[in-house]
Amino acid sequence: MPTEPASTVRPPSDATSQATLTPDQIADFRAAFDANPAHQLAMNACSFGNVDEIALDRRVLASLDWTFSHEVKTGAISNQKRAGFCWLFAALNWLRTDVIARLKVEDFEFSQNYLIFWDRLEKANRFLAEMVARRDRDPADREVDMHLREPCPDGGEWHMVANLIRKYGLVPKSAMADTANLCDSAFLNKVIDYKLREAAAMIFARHRAGADAAALEAIRLQAMTTIYRILCILMGEPPTRFDFCYRDKDEHHHAHRGLTPHEFYREFVGKDLDDYVWVMSAPLESTPFGRTFYVERYQNVVEGRWGVFLNVPMPALKDMAVRALKDKQAILFGCDVLQESSRKLGVLDKGVLAYELLFGTPFEMDRGQRMQFLQSTLTHDMVLLGVDLVDDRPVKWKVENSWGDEVGRKGIFQMSDAWFDEHVYCIVVHRKYLNHADAAQLEQPPTALPSWHPLA
């Protein structure tokens, strides 16, 4: 008896089978498009140009004012280039503002290469530890699969920087300069991910063959020896001692010899990292305000601290940011920089891209819906350097990016207050800027969010 070709067979549970597009429906779509000449004009323009530049609202651009009532000084703009370490670049840019003021220098930069080396090593070690812990599972298991898809990810957040500093200290850029593989992490990731997946395959195979815990630990240590070697070849070997010399604005020369990375941090940075807290504003049912949370798996150092954040309404988060900037304290923050922004001009503004006019349709999801349905995610970390207050209320914010000085105003971006309300996710702020209620809430036991949560 003839059977239906395999290519036409539908699974019995396919709930989409009633949604087939018909020729009549497609004819209706075509008629609706052709009925408005503006659609033809938009198609002609967008087919041959940069859509984000075509959609720019010139009235918004003409109204921009690049002065701010409260500002913090910084140094030259850093450039992460094609590396996915904005969180680390931003955190070091934030930390350097106090160093520049303390040393009375025009510019200063930490070595991003140094911390990225240790981040790669720690994430590799954590991946292997996760593989050993899950050796009884199928590689297709959801959690194992998530690790295997990205064994050593570029991404991270404030708590990961803090973990690295606590364990490895910091060094100035003069002690460990940039390398080509810092500026473009693709090759670095390709090689490390291969060796990590190779080690994972060996761990699972040896476990199935009856190997004991000591044998699996030997595999982990051998793999980590290899990873360390690869990192040294591609990024250089981190210094254990170094000299730090500089000349201040008064032309006085300073020389500090034989410093360790921890000595350097204590003497020239000196921040107590425990004084700084991660504050989020996420209006999701799964993350009610006034409680603390952390995302499972979002970690680099095995023994490191988890990224616990306090979730508060946006007005409370913004009030903390304003008070810190009034005290000339820069602020590390996270946002979705891909929403309603012009990278070239350095403008973050709800009205800067006239998509509704261009496409003839509104874009109406609110903040919570965009988060819940993954239209918006935490894509980028930067530094708040200033705010413009009118009648003591913010109207715009000064932002330091890490994309070099060829975008924005020599690397500086301007963010409207309305954009802050919609697309800023979180800030890192000193505990003293929390009110008594928020400080008390921060001490609650945190709720774990799964690795696939919208905030992950």
Structure notes:
This protein is α+β, with helices and mostly antiparallel strands and 456 residues long. It is 41% helix and 16% strand. It has 17 helices and 14 strands. Strands 1, 4, 5, 6, 7, 8, 9, 10, 11, 12, 13 and 14 form a 12-stranded mixed sheet that branches. Strands 2-3 form a two-stranded antiparallel ribbon.
Nearest-integer average pLDDT: 95
**Could you give the distance between the termini?**
52 Å
| Amount of helix | 40-55%
* Count of individual helical segments: 17
Oligomer: single chain
Which strand-content bin applies to the residues? 15-25%
Question: Rough shape?
Answer: globular
Return the structural class: alpha+beta
The rounded Rg comes to 25 Å
Low-confidence stretches: none
Number of strands: 14
Biggest sheet record: 12 strands, mixed
Question: Top keywords for this entry?
Answer:
single chain, 41% helix, 14 strands, globular, two-stranded antiparallel ribbon, 456 residues, alpha+beta, twelve-stranded mixed sheet
Topology:
Elements: H1 23-34, H2 37-46, H3 51-54, H4 58-62, E1 70-71, H5 86-103, H6 112-133, H7 142-149, H8 158-168, H9 180-183, H10 186-208, H11 213-235, E2 242-247, E3 253-259, H12 261-268, E4 276-280, E5 291-295, E6 309-311, H13 314-326, E7 331-335, E8 341-342, E9 347-348, H14 355-359, H15 367-372, E10 380-390, E11 393-400, E12 412-416, H16 417-423, E13 424-430, H17 436-442, E14 447-449
Parallel strand pairs: 4-6, 5-14, 9-12
Antiparallel strand pairs: 1-10, 2-3, 4-13, 5-6, 7-10, 7-13, 8-9, 10-11, 11-12
